[in-house]
Backbone:
């Protein structure tokens, strides 16, 4: 890893070196998970709620670590320890130093919905022409983003970095770290309203991404989003579902819109329409992100990873594009919506009825509001109550949408349905 010597790591994070170290060798990797350490790597020992990384220091030295960053060095450490006050702060400082050594194009992706799908699509498109490193899974917060930066290697030509937030100021810190050459914002929706209050607050928080960009950097914005259309930043382009190329081979209007965002980035970096289409055809929807699972007697739309009012309405839209099958929605509570949470859940029930959802199962305390406005929805107080009854439910000839906030653990519902 370019310039990541023990000496430079010490300097970057303000750490005190305890023990002898090879100050010339560059680290092969920097990790906080001891299982991912390669020989010649650096391990950052962090303290979590359940696991203290300091307990793995002996093991990582046995695996060939050249140094450990830690808040307290063991008395019998078998190698060099860089002692810091805060290991997570050190992770960010080291990633910031490393980012300055890299010359690839950085694409930052954020938005209320569709971040991960758009990230996957953008990486797939750019991979038709470039060597690409992208965020793994949903490593998109103030721990995940530094770890993503530290996965990039000198021969990577593009880095696609997903950036997620739930409070004001977080995006400012992330964009100061990533410093995107291109920033793509997918949508401004009703999410994390406990902190952001309303969509204007969401817009303000998401557009903090511009703070870390140069004047020449380009913003790529969803032109079908009313809040994003109000952005007047220089060097901004808008994309819509009506743009070329024809992406009708992608299932779902909202997925097509995400794909047009990826296509816009591809065009900025010199790809033609044929290359863009070939890249998009290689994309596999991640588990829990709206992929279709074909079961014996019905189809399952697994969108269980997370939910907010905007993403639930988008999922209902996609469900209702189904022509031949009965449309069923299993919807659970949406969290972090603030004082209007009951109203926002009630809107979902009305929306599902208006769009033509044939059957709705509402799950959770807040989702009682969905049942009330839908009219004739089935209702369960909790995920556990639904799971206890799930073998008795029949979905033959249906497309079944499963969606709720992550804290509802609807992945258990998906797994139970797959076994049925």
Residues:
């Amino acid at each position: 890893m370019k310039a990541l010597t023990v000496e430079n790591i010490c300097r970057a994070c303000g750490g005190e070196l305890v023990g002898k170290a090879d100050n010339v060798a560059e680290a092969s990797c920097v990790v906080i998970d001891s299982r991912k350490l390669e020989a010649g790597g650096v391990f950052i020992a962090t303290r979590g709620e359940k696991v203290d990384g300091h307990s793995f220091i002996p093991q990582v030295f046995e695996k060939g670590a050249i140094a450990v960053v830690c808040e307290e060095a063991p008395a019998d450490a078998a190698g060099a320890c860089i002692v810091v006050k805060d290991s997570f702060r050190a992770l960010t400082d080291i990633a910031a130093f490393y980012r300055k050594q890299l010359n690839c194009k950085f694409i930052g992706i954020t938005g209320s919905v569709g971040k991960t799908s758009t990230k996957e699509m953008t990486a797939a498109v750019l991979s038709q022409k470039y060597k690409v490193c992208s965020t793994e899974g949903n490593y998109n917060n103030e721990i995940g983003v530094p770890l993503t930066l530290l996965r990039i290697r000198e021969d990577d030509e593009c880095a696609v970095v997903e950036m997620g937030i739930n409070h004001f100021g977080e995006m400012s810190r992330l964009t100061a770290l990533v410093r995107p050459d291109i920033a793509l914002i997918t949508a401004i929706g009703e999410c994390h309203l406990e902190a952001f209050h309303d969509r204007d607050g969401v817009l303000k928080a998401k557009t903090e991404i511009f703070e870390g960009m140069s004047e020449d950097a380009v913003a790529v914005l969803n032109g079908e989003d009313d809040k994003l259309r109000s952005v007047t930043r220089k060097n901004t382009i808008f994309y819509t579902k009506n743009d070329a190329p024809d992406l009708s081979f992608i299932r779902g209007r909202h997925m097509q819109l995400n794909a047009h965002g990826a296509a816009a980035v591809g065009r900025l970096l010199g790809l033609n329409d044929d290359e863009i289409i070939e890249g998009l055809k290689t994309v596999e929807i991640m588990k829990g992100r709206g992929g279709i699972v074909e079961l014996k007697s019905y189809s399952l739309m697994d969108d269980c990873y997370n939910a907010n009012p905007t993403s639930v309405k988008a999922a209902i839209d996609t469900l209702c594009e189904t022509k031949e099958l009965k449309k069923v929605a299993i919807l659970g509570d949406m969290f972090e919506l603030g004082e209007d949470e009951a109203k926002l859940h009630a809107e979902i029930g009305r929306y599902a009825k208006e769009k033509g959802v044939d059957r709705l199962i509402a799950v959770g305390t807040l989702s009682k509001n969905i049942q009330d406005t839908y009219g004739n929805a089935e209702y369960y107080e909790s995920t556990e109550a639904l799971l206890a009854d799930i073998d008795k439910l029949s979905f033959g000839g249906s497309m079944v949408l499963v969606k709720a906030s992550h804290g509802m653990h609807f992945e258990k519902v998906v797994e139970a349905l797959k076994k049925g």
In short: The domain at 6-96 is CATH 3.40.1390.10 (Udp-n-acetylmuramoylalanyl-d-glutamate--2,6- Diaminopimelate Ligase; Chain: A, domain 1).
